[in-house]
Structures are given as structure tokens and as C-alpha cells.
Amino acid sequence: MNTSPRSVLPAARRVVVKIGSSSLTRPDGHLDVVALRALVDVLAERRRAGGEVVLVTSGAVAAGIGPAGLVSRPKDLATVQACAMLGQGQLVARYTEAFAEHGIGVGQALLTAEDTVRRARYRNAQRSLDKLLALGVVPVVNENDAVTVDELRFGDNDRLAALVSHLVRADAMVLLTDVDGLHDAPPSRPGARRIPLVTDLADVAGVEVTARGSSVGTGGMVTKLESVRIATSAGVPVVLTAARNVRAALAGEDVGTFFTAQGRTTARRLWIAHAARTEGRLHLDDGATRAVLGGRASLLPAGITRVEGSFDAGDPVELVAPDGGVVARGLVAYDATELPGLLGRSTFDLRDDLGEGYDREVIHRDDLVLDGRTGLSSSASAS
Ligand SMILES: Nc1ncnc2c1ncn2[C@@H]1O[C@H](COP(=O)(O)OP(=O)(O)O)[C@@H](O)[C@H]1O
Ligand SMILES: N[C@@H](CCC(=O)OP(=O)(O)O)C(=O)O
């Protein structure tokens, strides 16, 4: 019997495979169709053997650089978006052709950070991806670069892949890049060695990683480790390896770095805690602070003393204790303009006065994450 922790890979029913820009593009700013086809051959094999595959692919911006007449990755958002619009079409066209040769259809899913945060959108994306998989199609996922604004972007697809892994309840995630796994020092340094197995991310906390990726990728190893942390905390084991090793990785062979799953904290809560930019602050009284810190209560209007910022229902906000310290983050259920009229009032009073619907929590406990209890170190955040 194969008792290696990597045996989850050949046994996995549903896998998410993420490939980075650096593995898909040539130095001249055009797509590397040979690399793309090599990946598709392996994924198609898995699909035809009955496995379900979700492909998270970067490369839209990188593939658009050449067609846009540029020679290097642009810096300003509008040009990045224009390149993505040019490149995404090319990317999906090439995947469609390559999978079609194996008799497999692909469906494009362009997601934004909000699709993985807001409950209704999360469920919507979950339903449509489940349906696509049930139809035997391979979802080809990327960030919707054309419409996302700077402060709400993933920017890199590493964290997107982890959140998608959670969304589709993947049994494993494979992160493909241009290096064969996490090394004990940046791989450009002589003597840097591959780390084959990580069972606790604390063990690699001291490893030097850079946030600068290749000339076309973004985030480098820092965002990959953050992605690993989100996925493994959501119960999804991860292999991080070079794109050329994808077949071996899916077969459970000793390539790259294997990270074991840690638990079942929801990725959505991890995202609320660390990835989303907060839009405002709610100041709490003593009682509400204690209730929130207790970990099981929702936040009610009665315990809020003041509202700061401008936000809509569903946005992430910070919760501030009377001493000024931030104690938690959460997704607020009311717009900033609605809240001042509700503050300090009991839910009974609000229902009598304003009617059904005004007796709901300001932040439901499922949408609340205490500060410092999520297992993500802030030093690992994306640059
Ligand atoms: N300790 C480390 N182990 C492995 N790679 C590292 C480490 N530190 C930095 N890196 C760099 O991270 C890069 C991968 O990130 P990136 O270019 O963003 O990839 P992608 O485009 O595939 O997402 C590698 O090329 C490597 O140079
Ligand atoms: N959504 C972007 C991803 C940007 C990017 O460079 O990501 P990655 O190569 O995964 O670090 C694209 O398709 O170009």
C-alpha cells in the first residue's frame, strides 16, 4: 500500500492546477504554445481517466505584451488591463484548440476577488463551476483583469487558485511555476536545495523567499506560500513544482515541494482576515468587544458606538475596541448610510420601529474573524 502523503494526488477526484505566466510565455512577449500544449496533454489524460480538473491559468497580461506592441510588462493599470484583454482571448483560444484535440471542452471563468468573498457571488461561482465539471468540461479560470480595480485585485493568481480550490472543494492543488518547488534559499543562489516535504508551515518560516517574480510573473514565492497557507488551512494539500513536472506531480512522485493539509478553516475567513482591503471601521462598546472576542457571537447594532468610512453591505470592515485596538474584521450586512440610525438600539426595538429585516446582525458570526487568530503571518502578504 502507498502510504506516502503524496498518494492523495493520484487518488484525488478533483484537482486544481495553477500555472504561472513565467511558464506560459516566451521572452518575446508571446504565448509559449508548446508549453501550453504539453500541460494540456497531461490534464486531458487525467480528465479522460475520470478525474476532474480545474485549470487556473495566468498569462493573459504576459501574452498581450507582444500583440500590444510593447516589449516588457507595463506598470500602469490601464495598460495592464488592455494587455490582459488582448491576451486572455488568445489564451482561451489556444486552450480550446488544445483540449479539443483530446475531445474535451473548456469553459472560461473570469473571477474577481469579490466572487470569492461575497456569499451570494461565492455560491453562484460554486454552482456554475460544479455544473461545468459535471458536464465533463475543464473550467479555465483567470482573474477578470479587465474590470478589477487595483485595491480589489488578487494581482497574482496564486491566492486565486487557493480560493478556487476551496470553492470547488478540491482534493488537491498543484501550483506550477518556473522552479522545482520551495528551496531553502532563492534558487538563483548557489547551493540552494529543494525542500521536498512541509508538514507545518512554521518549519519554513525562516526560509528566505523573494516577492519579486520572474519578469512576467507577479508575487514571486511570497504569494505562492500565502496561497499554500490558504489552501492547506482549508484542508487542501498542495504540490509546488515546475511546469515540466506536472505529470509526475499528479502521479504523486517526489518532485517539487509537497505541503500537507492542516485543517479546515474556511478560506473565505482567511480571505476576510488578510486579503481584503477594509472599507470602514465600526467602534464597539465594552460589552460588544467582549462578545466578539468570545468568538461565537454575531455583532448586533446595540453594541456599536460609532461608524467610520463609506462602505456598502457586504464590504469588509474593521471592528475597533474602546481602547482603539482592532479586534476583528468582518463583512458588514448594512450600508454605512443605514447604520447610524440603528446604533445602540436593540434588535426588538428596531424590528418594531423599522420592520422585519432590520433585526438582523450587523456582522454575522460566520463573517467575523478575530484579529491574529487566522494563522496567516502578515509578513507573507503580497507586495
Ligand atoms: N526560496 C525560494 N524557493 C523557490 N523559489 C523562490 C524562492 N525565493 C524566490 N523564488 C522565486 O520565485 C519565482 C517564482 O515566482 P513567479 O515569477 O511569480 O512565478 P509564476 O509566474 O509562475 O507565478 C522563481 O522564479 C524563484 O526565482
Ligand atoms: N491574471 C493575470 C495574472 C498575473 C500574474 O502574473 O500571475 P502569476 O504569473 O501567477 O504570478 C494574468 O493572466 O496575466
From TrEMBL:
<dbReference type="Pfam" id="PF00696">
    <property type="entry name" value="AA_kinase"/>
</dbReference>
<comment type="pathway">
    <text>Amino-acid biosynthesis; L-proline biosynthesis; L-glutamate 5-semialdehyde from L-glutamate: step 1/2.</text>
</comment>
<keyword id="KW-0028">Amino-acid biosynthesis</keyword>
<keyword id="KW-0808">Transferase</keyword>
<dbReference type="InterPro" id="IPR011529">
    <property type="entry name" value="Glu_5kinase"/>
</dbReference>
<keyword id="KW-0067">ATP-binding</keyword>
<dbReference type="GO" id="GO:0003723">
    <property type="term" value="F:RNA binding"/>
</dbReference>
<dbReference type="InterPro" id="IPR001057">
    <property type="entry name" value="Glu/AcGlu_kinase"/>
</dbReference>
<keyword id="KW-0963">Cytoplasm</keyword>
<keyword id="KW-0641">Proline biosynthesis</keyword>
<dbReference type="GO" id="GO:0004349">
    <property type="term" value="F:glutamate 5-kinase activity"/>
</dbReference>
<dbReference type="GO" id="GO:0005524">
    <property type="term" value="F:ATP binding"/>
</dbReference>
<keyword id="KW-0418">Kinase</keyword>
<dbReference type="GO" id="GO:0005829">
    <property type="term" value="C:cytosol"/>
</dbReference>
<dbReference type="InterPro" id="IPR036974">
    <property type="entry name" value="PUA_sf"/>
</dbReference>
<feature type="binding site">
    <location>
        <begin position="177"/>
        <end position="178"/>
    </location>
    <ligand>
        <name>ATP</name>
    </ligand>
</feature>
<dbReference type="InterPro" id="IPR005715">
    <property type="entry name" value="Glu_5kinase/COase_Synthase"/>
</dbReference>
<dbReference type="InterPro" id="IPR001048">
    <property type="entry name" value="Asp/Glu/Uridylate_kinase"/>
</dbReference>
<dbReference type="InterPro" id="IPR015947">
    <property type="entry name" value="PUA-like_sf"/>
</dbReference>
<dbReference type="GO" id="GO:0055129">
    <property type="term" value="P:L-proline biosynthetic process"/>
</dbReference>
<comment type="similarity">
    <text>Belongs to the glutamate 5-kinase family.</text>
</comment>
<dbReference type="InterPro" id="IPR041739">
    <property type="entry name" value="G5K_ProB"/>
</dbReference>
<dbReference type="InterPro" id="IPR002478">
    <property type="entry name" value="PUA"/>
</dbReference>
<comment type="function">
    <text>Catalyzes the transfer of a phosphate group to glutamate to form L-glutamate 5-phosphate.</text>
</comment>
<feature type="binding site">
    <location>
        <position position="145"/>
    </location>
    <ligand>
        <name>substrate</name>
    </ligand>
</feature>
<protein>
    <recommendedName>
        <fullName>Glutamate 5-kinase</fullName>
        <ecNumber>2.7.2.11</ecNumber>
    </recommendedName>
</protein>
<keyword id="KW-0547">Nucleotide-binding</keyword>
<feature type="binding site">
    <location>
        <begin position="218"/>
        <end position="224"/>
    </location>
    <ligand>
        <name>ATP</name>
    </ligand>
</feature>
<feature type="domain" description="PUA">
    <location>
        <begin position="280"/>
        <end position="355"/>
    </location>
</feature>
<feature type="binding site">
    <location>
        <position position="58"/>
    </location>
    <ligand>
        <name>substrate</name>
    </ligand>
</feature>
<feature type="binding site">
    <location>
        <position position="18"/>
    </location>
    <ligand>
        <name>ATP</name>
    </ligand>
</feature>
<dbReference type="Pfam" id="PF01472">
    <property type="entry name" value="PUA"/>
</dbReference>
<dbReference type="InterPro" id="IPR036393">
    <property type="entry name" value="AceGlu_kinase-like_sf"/>
</dbReference>
<feature type="binding site">
    <location>
        <position position="157"/>
    </location>
    <ligand>
        <name>substrate</name>
    </ligand>
</feature>
